[in-house]
Design a protein that fits this description.
- It is a multi-pass membrane protein.
- Its main location: membrane.
- Keywords: Membrane, Transmembrane, Transmembrane helix.
- Helix 1 packs parallel to helix 4, helix 1 runs antiparallel to helix 5 and helix 3 packs across helix 5.
- It is built from 15 helices and no strands.
- The relative contact order is 0.15.
- The chain is mainly alpha-helical and about 450 residues long.
Length: about 450
């Protein structure tokens, strides 16, 4: 029987693409958590060394538009996903080898680690961009919020499953054991991703590769994407909101410890509570957009506004919380921040998928790449700038609580700016006058 390519992707295919995110998360968590700890504790290196390596991984995300452009020209996303995963897994294994080598030859080991972190960043960018483009073109509008939740929750599953398993097999620790565990995780992750994506793209309408004589230069396409007022506004929105989203990542636990005298164990549980709230917010948006489709409640833009405004309110409350002393409901407020963050994040990702389809289909990957670059750079900069801002304010004030209050309030203001930017997304038509997807448009 002939396959109906116009039917798009069903839930089995969406879950299969989510497995790619699971595999991606499995490799990345070893890079950002396990190798970070090994360098600081076992190798006694300064904390800024792994920090710089992680920054390399984020910095290379600026190349996402070029990788999206490449997949647009080829007409297929699968090779870019598989190729990106190959680069990611090789980079993950190389970083472990470099870390182990650094114990014997510091310069050579760190050089290998730096090259490997660059490889990881390129792999994440190439695979992640093409995966989202594939979803944006194949998922029905009413399912986009739920589909975004599925793939991101499955990435979190990759974090949650790999970290404890890898920790179990790393004891008793040795450089050789680190290399073996990393190599196994990388090999399994690549196999899972390759099998998960195989054949999925065949369910979608075929698009022939662009003829060589018809190909427009990359910077021409990039300029056309940024000439779209909606695409340009959304790029700024992604950057501002992700900057606010990530800036509290490195300061929330120290704030709880300094201001509320919480122990390290208690602040770790507090971070877990926040992540639980993020998951709850994502699931809430997925459920509402599916069950209330066709109504105002299914609008992803509405949930972006709710998520950003709720995040701002929670951050303003945290900024004023120390004045309330022990009576301040810190745990409840951190959970509320997580819920609002999760609602905003999944609605923004679903909207990114919807907006990628605006205009020429040959620009879809470039569009997604621009937004992915804004997200990656903002996320990498947010944590660093948040911590630096706290230190800077503490230079001019004697009370630590005032420094944290200023930074939390600044993050809240950024989220309010993001609300304004999201509200402007429909204010100007695209150059080709293609309307926003119904799942994202004003109701």
């Amino acid at each position: 029987m002939a396959q109906d390519r116009s039917a798009g992707l069903g839930w089995p295919q969406i879950v299969r693409l989510g497995l790619v995110q699971t595999a991606l998360g499995s490799v990345v968590v070893l890079m950002t958590a396990t190798l970070n700890r090994v360098m600081v504790v076992e190798l006694a290196l300064p904390a800024f060394v792994p920090g710089l390596l992680v920054a390399l991984h984020y910095a290379v995300q600026v190349l996402r538009p070029r990788w999206g452009y490449g997949s647009d020209r080829s007409g297929r996303r699968t090779p870019w996903i598989v190729g990106g995963m190959a680069a990611l897994c090789l980079g993950g294994f190389g970083a472990a080898c470099g870390t182990a080598l650094a114990a014997e030859n510091l310069a050579l080991g760190l050089a290998l680690a730096a090259l490997s972190f660059l490889c990881v960043g390129m792999g994440v960018g190439a695979a992640g961009t093409s995966l989202l483009v594939l979803l944006s073109g194949g998922v029905a509008p009413a399912r986009r919020g739920a589909a975004a939740t599925v793939v991101w929750v499955m990435m979190i599953v990759g974090f949650a499953v790999t970290a404890p398993l890898a920790g179990h097999f790393l004891d008793p620790f040795s450089g050789l054991r680190l290399v073996a565990v990393s190599g196994t995780v990388s090999l399994v992750a690549f196999g899972v991703a390759a099998l998960a994506v195989a054949g999925v793209e065949r369910r979608l309408p075929l698009r022939a590769p662009e003829a060589a004589e018809a190909r427009r230069p990359f910077f021409t396409v990039l300029g056309q994407v940024l000439a779209d007022p909606v695409a340009r506004t959304f790029t700024v929105f992604v950057f501002v909101s992700m900057l606010a989203y990530s800036a509290q990542e490195l300061i929330l636990e120290p704030y709880a410890g300094l201001v509320f005298a919480m122990s390290p164990g208690a602040t770790t549980k507090l971070a877990g509570l926040q992540h639980g709230g993020v998951l709850a917010g994502m699931l809430l948006v997925a459920a509402v957009t599916l069950l209330a489709r066709g109504t105002a409640l299914a609008s992803l833009r509405l949930w972006i506004g709710i998520g950003c405004a709720g995040s701002a309110a929670a951050l303003f409350a945290l900024a004023s919380g120390a004045a309330s002393g022990a009576d301040f409901p810190l745990r409840a407020m951190v959970f509320a921040l997580g819920v609002a963050n999760g609602a905003y994040a999944v609605a923004a990702i679903g909207s990114m998928m919807a907006l990628a389809g605006r205009g020429d289909a040959r620009e879809r990957g470039t569009r997604m790449g621009v937004w992915g670059a804004a997200q990656g750079v903002a996320f990498g900069a947010g944590g660093f700038l948040g911590a630096v801002a706290v230190d800077a304010v503490r230079l001019v004030t004697a009370e630590p609580v005032q420094a944290y209050a200023v930074v939390f309030a600044a993050e809240g203001v950024l989220f309010l700016v993001a609300v304004v930017l999201a509200a402007r997304l429909d204010s100007a038509p695209a150059p080709d006058s293609v309307p926003l997807d119904p799942a994202f448009s004003a109701r």
